[in-house]
Amino acid sequence: MAIDALAHLKDPERVSTIVLKIGSALLVDMDGNPRTEWLNGLVDEIGDFRKNGIGVILVSSGAIALGASRLKLVRGGRGSLSDAQAAASVGQIVLSGLWSAALERLGLSAAQMLVTLGDLEGRKRYLNASSTISRLLEAGVVPVVNENDSVATEEIRFGDNDRLAARVAQAAGADAVVLLSDVDGLYDCDPADANARLVSRIEGVGPEILAMGSDKSSSGKGSGGMSSKLQAAQIAERAGITLAIINGQHAAPITRAIAEDCGSLFIPRRSDDARRSWLGGRIAPSGSISVDDGCIAALAKGASLLAAGVTEVDGDFGRGALVSVLDSDGLAIAQGLVEYDSENCRSIAGARQREQADILGHAPRSAVIHRDQMVML
Q: What's 164's DSSP letter?
């Protein structure tokens, strides 16, 4: 049964597992102290999910904000990478303790999972994470997931927990993701504009929807904005997962959103298989390959990417790396695992297969990116 309304998020016939993402500004006040009363109200809602037989996974920010307060760091611990890493190291203990104590009140056990971008980008580590989450849910535990900011650097991190929540939902085989935000949902323009209209139902995240997003976090505490939430919706959609954005600032925010039917619900229009949804959800390509219009038309019909359609190669990557496929305007239309390193890709760009053996000095592979290793975006 499809999830067609916010009220369906609590329907055990439609949802067996749900991912809730909580931002720093909801969990931590302006002085760096936990908002305990708000947290307990949300935990009561988690208890309701569990009573209905719905498994709950939490993706919780807040470690840096909590740690910065205790270390007396400027700019909320985001003044430098080393400040953020130190704050996260201190704050993660506090954060896990908060969730553990709050859930224990209802007789629920919490499990801490700290992940980095590489844990969900690499296939083997992704499957390991998936297995761990599945076992925790089977044991009746509430996994609390956060990015491991104490070791992550700018080059190897998600940078926001919105996309992390969508990737965790993919790994867990969840049915829905709820992003608790500081606004009611997606607006068709700046929410501060008196004429702004809440978009309550979105079927597929295309360019016109992405244009409505902002990359700014209004609280100043977090690292995400509406842009990251829309990217999360794209990731969720590829796995056939419904995603909702609701205002988390209220007491019992999920109950309030359902009662007032206030929020944005993203209905997926596709459902890739497990491998393709993982591949399409990866966010750190090593380079890009630009292709001509003829190649784009062929890809749309399910063909592999052949060297003859390649017009340009950017980046330095090895065979098996994830690369983006770009159209003539530089827009990503697909991504996949490349069969050649970047040097060989440049050498055979635009060449027909019969010409490639002479260029490479050996028999060419059947494709630059095989269709089984590629997903259209």
A: H
What does residue 198 show for φ and ψ, rounded to 5 degrees? -70, 130
C-alpha torsion 38→40→41→44, nearest 10: 160
Interval 207-244: pLDDT, tens: 888 888 765 555 444 445 899 999 999 999 989 999 99
Sign of the torsion formed by the C-alpha atoms of 199, 202, 205 and 206: negative
Tell me how far apart the alpha carbons of residues 64 and 85 are, in angstroms, rounded to a whole number.
8
Handedness of CA 62, 66, 67, 71 (dihedral sign): positive
Can you spell out the DSSP letters for 95-161? HHHHHHHHHHTTT--EEEEEE-HHHHHSHHHHHHHHHHHHHHHHTT-EEEEEE-TTT--GGG--SSH
Q: What is the reported pTM?
A: 0.85
Give all domains of the chain, ordered by start, each with its CATH number.
6-278 (3.40.1160.10), 285-376 (2.30.130.10)
Distances (CA, A) of 7 to 4, 197, 255: 8, 21, 9
Are the beta carbons of 245 and 179 closer than 8 angstroms? yes
Q: In what order do the strands lie in the sheet with 55-60?
A: 110-115, 142-147, 55-60, 17-22, 176-181, 242-247, 264-267, 201-203
**How many other CB atoms are found less than 10 A from the CB of residue 37?**
8
